[in-house]
Amino acid sequence: MKFxxxxxxxxxxxxxxxxxxxxxxxxxxxxxWENGVGHAPELWSKLGDMGVLGLLVPxxxxxxxxxxxxxxxxxxxxxxxxxxxxxxEHMAVGAPALASKHPGVVDGSxxxxxxxxxxxxxxxxxxxxxxxxxxxxxxxxxxxDVHGIDGARRIASxxxxxxxxxxxxxxxxxxxxxxxxxxxxxxxxxxxxMIEIAAEYARQREQFGKPxxxxxxxxxxxxxxxxxxxxxxxxxxxxAWSLANGEPTASRDVSMAKALASEAAYRSSRGSMQVHGGxxxxxxxxxQLFMKKxxxxxxxxxxxxxxxxxxxxxxxxx
Amino acid sequence: xxxxxxxxxxxFRAEAREWLAANVPSEPLPSFDTEAGxxxxxxxxxxxxxxxxxxVSWPEKYGGRGADYIHWLIFEEEYYRSGAPGRVxxxxxxxxxxxxxxxxxxxxxxxxxxxxxSSEIVWAQAWSEPNAGSDLAGIRAKATRDGDDxxxxxxxxxxxxxxxxxxxFGIFRTDPTAxxxxxxxxxxxxxxLPGITVRPIAQLDGDTGFAEIFFDDVRVPVxxxxxxxxxxxxxxxxTAGFERGVSLRSPARFTEAANRLVHLWRTYADPSDTALADxxxxxxxxxxxxxxxxxxxxxGMLEGRPIGAEASLNKIFWSEMDVRIxxxxxxxxxxxxxxxxxxxxxxxxxxxxxLSGPIYAGTNEIQRNIIxxxxxxxxxxx
Lengths: 318, 382
What we know:
The complex is a heterodimer. Chain A is of the alpha+beta class. Chain A has eleven helices and nine strands. In chain A, α1 (7-23) runs parallel beside α4 (68-80) and α5 (87-98) runs antiparallel to α7 (175-204). The longest helix of chain A has 30 residues, at 175-204. Chain B is 46% helix and 14% strand. Chain B contains eleven helices and eight strands. In chain B, a hairpin with a 2-residue loop joins β2 (142-146) and β3 (149-160). The interface between A and B is large, with 46 and 49 residues.
């Protein structure tokens, strides 16, 4: 029993954090909203160069051959920076599934998104070359944009094209669960970051002649948000381990993670916005880049209620 | 990361399970907050100690097994699964014991730890005062030096187990000129000395689980000082870290309660009530999440990352979860939740007890302040 990450896993995550603090500031995220692309191609290439995009691709296909435990801290770091575009979809499902036929997924020259649920919309379809779906891979499709809440996760209706089956369909086993896991970890990163942004604001902003962070009402609001985020972490890391090891409880464990992480990120968004007061309700504040991502992702790949019910069916059934 | 038990851990679990199955009393003991119950629980502790199960994480020479924290968590899981009695000496074994090991002298370790492990001496905590609760640094009870003795005067309150306990560990003001956190000293004191009056306080459940302690020129030797004169605040915070963090509230207690809640739901609840099913599932997830969080914390401690102010997060989490588990149980029980004895007594009692959690060991509001100040780095102030 050893519930911790290796030094290598930590160092890789720290390296990614360093890269993202330089290469993915909020101004870049905002830029991808404003230019209508919702994706940052230069950053994408750097993630490819670093090995992040091909992390879960088998070594025989040119990837790093890592597993969900290796990946989970990286998903969290991507969330801390609110990295735009289909990074989770590509990393967790698209690249591992298609690398044998499309080697460009490893360096990111081929971009994959996924459509694994019953949503009428596909996220990131307009920047994707291929869409991994439950029954195969769609190419040559047309995209009709839908105005979504998160400008760095654009959604669209998708029509036409052709669907080809995956040569090795086992590569899609557990795809939905991996997406839900990746999203859980990303949500935790978002939650952490929103709390940090709000704490920084609470140290600076003065009312009644004092920083508002010195008031208990603010302290308690933020402590409660942090509590939710901190207690979503261990279940998310456990879910990664269960997936990586093919545990029989893997789906239940992923659902527990997604339910807790979705609620934690949402709570962080509400608390952080409240701490910002009127500024929190503006387009100008960077907080919105993180909040809207959290609101979109807390529903994507199963919302908290859906996942809690999946835990329910595993736990309450005798 | 490897969340499987090693063969050694599995063998330890099996050994604990086997011993408990053979030794746990078949009928629940009376509450340890009654005189008969206290005696019965002290006898149970003696039996645990004879099997070397009373303090598994302590070094062998003090009555433990030298087990690491992972083994301790495994033992706790088996302990609560077996339905074994509550731990009457928990303030000693889980709070004072680790504190003595951290700051005590070798002589103090030899003197106090073995009798603590065997519960020959049961310990009470004597920290709070009528005017020093959440504001613990406002302590007024004083210890005045007289040769090789301290002379203790003042009043303590909410001293758990003090009605029948043998000794207490208290914090006293030793430098009346010092400001608040400074000038406090951690002193160990027998409760049968001349000048001590213990006045029981009936708790919400009617039992006298805590008490006031009055000190009137009570004389104890200076060698009963733990961790140095005027260093009491530092020592107390080490103790509080254990209390709020992992040691007093191991996750097993809550996973066991959550599993009982699931059983209660299966047996008595209307399965078409999806809101209730969601609530039960949520309680189960909380308990499971706390268990996982604790294994992660403990692995970190074993790898040299000590627990800090995060202990305050644990304290809020387990205390609120415990209330929630019991609230849901009472919801399932409906009219039976009004009845104080009978088949569901444990849930109703447990509900009352759970309500103390957000208050003792530092109220949850104080914990939120600590998190805000020390983890979130927000400015001090109210």
